[in-house]
Structure formats: C-alpha cells, structure tokens
Amino acid sequence: MIIPVRCFTCGKVVGSAYPEYAKRIKMSGEEASKQILDDMGFERYCCRRMIVAHANLIGEISQLG
Q: What is the pTM of this model?
C-alpha cells in the first residue's frame, strides 16, 4: 500500500525517505541495503523494518477501481 509517514514503534518520520531508498536500490547493483539505510541515518531496527518490508502495491490497487 502506501508507506506510513511515521515508524509505528518510535515515531520517526520514514515516509519521505522511501522514494530515495527505492531509487538507490534500483540504481545500485552491489550497494547493500544496510549501507543505504546507514547513509540515510536509519539506525533503529524498527525504522529499517518500515522501509525494507514495504510492498509498493498502490499501482495494482488503483487499477481495480
């Protein structure tokens, strides 16, 4: 669906970081997800989970309507 604006656990803003994360993952063949999240300043596991586990399904849902 749509990535949540804030982390469910700690409340840190994570929604605005997802487009950059997705772009960097797509562009980098060898750059690890861990390194990208470290560079973006996500140190807590709860925030990392919010970004890494997100499934971008908005395109599939919008076609149903």
A: 0.76
Report how far apart, in Å, the C-alpha atoms of 28 and of each of 4, 14, 31, 33, 41 are: 24, 21, 5, 10, 18
Cβ-contact 22, 7 below 8 angstroms: no
Q: Which pair of tokens denotes residue 13?
A: 């803003």
Rounded Cα–Cα distance for residues 42 and 35 (Å): 10
Q: Is the pLDDT of residue 45 over 60?
A: yes
Q: Which amino acid is at 11?
A: G
CA 43 to CA 34: how far, in whole Å?
A: 10
